[in-house]
Amino acid sequence: MEILKGLATVNAYPALYLEKYNAVIVADLHIGFEAALEKDGIHIPVSMYPKMKAQLTSLLDETKAERVIFLGDVKHEFGEPSVQEWVEVKDLLGWLMERGVSVDVVRGNHDNYIIRILKKYDNVTLHDPVMFLEDIMLAHGHKSFEIPSEVRVVILAHEHPAISVKDKSGAKYKFKCFLVGKYKEVDLVVIPSFSPLAVGVSINEAPKEELLTPMLHEVDLGEFTPIVVEKDVGAFKFPPLKFL
């Protein structure tokens, strides 16, 4: 589904495809999240990384993309990379290098010390704090920043957007979604998390002041359109948030 000119969702993947650059954008993998949960006494029996890698494989196979842009929070720990993060991030980057895919990493708030891993790979470029593709500006979203006058589109992550809806029986369901709207005169897109463990924040229920992304505090969220991505239905556009 094309959400802006040259910018589209890909089936049910929590990812965007940039046609002009033959690139896919994914964010918030939070590799190593399971190890962090284990420290808090929450046991996740299997790593989510193989599932994310398989999903990314299918995404690249379907789009034939030659470039992957990670829009922040590739890893989860705020401090030094955990053993799980070292092993799985290195596997991810090595696999992408073998595929001949170039990689851009836009640094997120969880990506401290990630340069120690990235510098081992010639196909990886780190962008901190923002990345530009002509008139497209990409940032993780945890910081405020100035938008140059030539920018037409801003793409963010960080918030892990989702919406909650009820069926006729009153049962509630949460779905990951993209958010599409305006920030002043610029098109703004917020992409959902790629991690299966980070389902997200119900944007249609959360108080605006509790949102984590500074830029979202400055917009009328009611005018934003959620585009749900769900395995059984693909991408589905809902009415603006003010109607949900």
TrEMBL record:
Residues 24-169 form the Calcineurin-like phosphoesterase domain. One of its GO terms (molecular function) is hydrolase activity. It holds the Pfam family Metallophos. This is Calcineurin-like phosphoesterase domain-containing protein.
